[in-house]
Amino acid sequence: MKIDVMGVQFDNVTMDEALSSAISLLPARRGAYVVTPNSEIVYEAMHDPDLLALLNKADLVLPDGAGVVLGSKILKTPLKEKVAGVDFADRLLGHLAETGGSVYLLGGKPGIAEKAGEKMRAKYPDLTICGMADGYFTDEKPVIAAIQAAKPDVLFVCLGAPKQEKFMAAHQKELPVGLMAGLGGSLDSFAGTVKRAPKWMIRMNLEWFYRLLKEPRRFGRMLRLPKFLWAVVLRRMRGAR
Ligand code: UDP
C-alpha cells in the first residue's frame, strides 16, 4: 500500500517487508530501483516536479527518516516505521552474503567505496563485491560498461539526491541488475568516515541533530526539515491531502 506524504508515494512497509519486496525484485534483472527519501528530499521534490516523478517511478519508496514518518502521522495516514536507507542496505548485504549474491558499489569520494567494501567484507565474509567506482565521474559511459560487465545482483548508487535518482532512471534499461538502490551518503557510513549517531539518539529520533553537530555545513539543507513539517501542518489544517 502507498501512502502520500506531500506528493511522494511511500511504500507503507516495515524493514522486514521492505527487504522481502526488494528480494522479490532481484530475479527479473530488469533494473528495478529503490529510493530512500528523507524529509529534506521530500521538501525538494515539493518544488521539483522532475525529482518527484523520479521518486514516484521507483519500484520501492522507503521512508528514510523520522521526519517523513512524523509528517505521515500529522497527515493522519501513518507510515508503519522509518526504514533508514543505510540499515536497509545492510540487511540487503546480509541477504546477498547468505545467498551467494553480488553487489557493486558506486559513489562517494575516491577511496570511499574501497573502505566501505573492506568493512562490508569484515562483517559479511561470504559477500561478493563484484566492482566499485567513485561517484565523481564526468563520463557515464565507462561506468555503465563496467557495471554491465560485472553483472551485479544489486547496485548501490550513492551519488546524493537528485543525481542518484536521475542516474538510476536514465540507465534502468541498460543495466540488467536485480536492483539499484539510491542510498545517498551510505557508503560514507559503511566506510566509517561519517559516523552514525549513538543508538540512544537514533531511538529518540535525534539522528538529524547528531548530523547537524558533526556536519554544521548541512545547516542550510537541514532547514528544509522544519520547512517540510510546517508545510505538512498547513496541509493538515487546510484538510487537503
Ligand atoms: N557524491 C558522489 N558524487 C557526486 C556528489 C556526491 O558520489 O557527484 C556522494 C558524496 O561523496 C556522498 C553522497 O554522494 O557520499 C551524498 O551524501 P549526502 O550525505 O550529501 O547525501 P544524502 O545522503 O543526504 O542524500
Automatic annotation (TrEMBL):
InterPro entries: TagA_TarA, WecG_TagA_CpsF. Pathway: Cell wall biogenesis; teichoic acid biosynthesis. GO terms for biological process: cell wall organization; teichoic acid biosynthetic process. Its EC number is 2.4.1.187. It is an enzyme of class 2 (transferase). It catalyses: UDP-N-acetyl-alpha-D-mannosamine + N-acetyl-alpha-D-glucosaminyl-di-trans,octa-cis-undecaprenyl diphosphate = N-acetyl-beta-D-mannosaminyl-(1->4)-N-acetyl-alpha-D-glucosaminyl di-trans,octa-cis-undecaprenyl diphosphate + UDP + H(+). GO terms for molecular function: N-acetylglucosaminyldiphosphoundecaprenol N-acetyl-beta-D-mannosaminyltransferase activity. It comes from the Bacteria. The keyword Phosphoprotein does not apply. Keywords: Cell wall biogenesis/degradation, Glycosyltransferase, Teichoic acid biosynthesis, Transferase. The keyword Transferase applies. It holds the Pfam family Glyco_tran_WecG. Belongs to the glycosyltransferase 26 family. TagA/TarA subfamily. Catalyzes the conversion of GlcNAc-PP-undecaprenol into ManNAc-GlcNAc-PP-undecaprenol, the first committed lipid intermediate in the de novo synthesis of teichoic acid. This is N-acetylglucosaminyldiphosphoundecaprenol N-acetyl-beta-D-mannosaminyltransferase.
